[in-house]
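Handout for the seminar on molecular recognition.
Each group receives one record of this type.
Step one: identify the two inputs.
Step two: read the structure output and locate the region that could contact cobalt (II) ion.
Step three: write two sentences on what you found, then compare them with the reference statements printed after the record.
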Amino acid sequence: MFFDDIKDISYEGPSSKNPLAFKYYNPVEIIDEKPLSQHLRFSIAFWHTLNYNGADPFGSNNMIRPWNDIDDPMTLAFKKIDALFELAEKLNIEYFCFHDRDIAPEGDTLRETNKNLDKVVAHIKDHLKDGKVKVLWVTANLFSNPRYVHGAATSPNPYVFAYAAAQVKKALEIAKEVGASGYVFWGGREGYETLINTDLALELDNLARFLHMAVDYAKKIGFTGQFLVEPKPKEPTKHQYDFDVANALSFLNKYGLSDYFKFNIEANHATLAGHTFQHELRYARINGKLGSIDANEGDLLLGWDVDRFPTNIYDTTLAMYEVIKNGGLYPGGLNFDAKVRRGSFTPEDLFRAFIAGMDTFAVGLKIAHRIVEDGELDEIIEERYKGYKKGIGEKIVNGEIGFEELEEYIIDKPQIVNTSGLQEYMESLLNQYILNFYLENKER
Ligand code: XUL
Ligand code: CO
């Protein structure tokens, strides 16, 4: 046990003053015949939770962690797995995600590294046996080691391509072994710093070749989890190839990959791309590609990926609206790719952060559910586009007419009349849903 002072976190309701209790996330509460735990499918990102030590460009490690005094890398790896399961069980979180390099140290050769991995994976499998915590998705870290300085699948060096391929091959085998629901490709260093030294066409072709190899190998070994692309526009490279959903979707379509992939949408990546979180979720959803979520929050005053735990109810409401419209996230989930602030360095802060994020998403779900159930916002949208249900609009939608007929239809018509878009009214309606939720829960 690592977090001896912390008991199981339970639901105490909105009036609770206990910092180590859920106020809104009641995992067994039913909405639309499904418990909250199934709507939200929370997951812990191993890397930010177990490995983030507080270092930043101006300061060294400062996180107080119960495993800080363990020196032997393999012992540490085993202990962190134990700590992960303790944390997940105490927080009632059913899933976790990891990169290969998060869980085990690298050896001198890939063969040695794989042996280290095998030992830790065996330990994970021991923990998985009781079925309380499962693996949401697995991924490979193709960015930390200096060999990936110019990218992995998009490196100008084919030896690096080969190394990355071998690494993903192993990670897919692990994904199968631990029964992961998915496998994520986040771009890592797949991108460029300047086009002056970059063969853009070859790099993109190679990235597609790499993904095809992954698809083929998954089929070969019988890994049936969902492949996911996690778009991000910049950081670490100046231009990341999976810039946003629209860009990545066109890449997948061009290379005949779209049947095999969905998206893992990360909130802070969306805002870095100049989009809202909701925009990326919506764009993926309307294309049948919303697979999973990396939940966090950016800081509008900062231009980089800050991965804060999400506490913005407005954003989680709009995100959960998209999730409900998507029919849920299954077999994906809501992974907290979030880290505590450097100033929140105690073990209790880890728990407080997850509680805050989980409560905020539970509130978002409850408000979004009300919005969808009432249908008021949807009705306004429906009304706005009603012209396409009849007459000329219907003909346009059904592809029955072209420019000539449209010209003939409109050329002698008097003035066109538009109706209001009702933006401010709808924004106030959204506020009303949020505030009414607050009032209903105030004294409970
Ligand atoms: C980086 C990021 C990654 C992916 C997994 O910004 O979000 O941690 O989620 O590689
Ligand atoms: Co992420």
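Reference statements: The first helix runs from residue 36 to 40. The CA atoms of residues 153 and 161 lie 5 Å apart.
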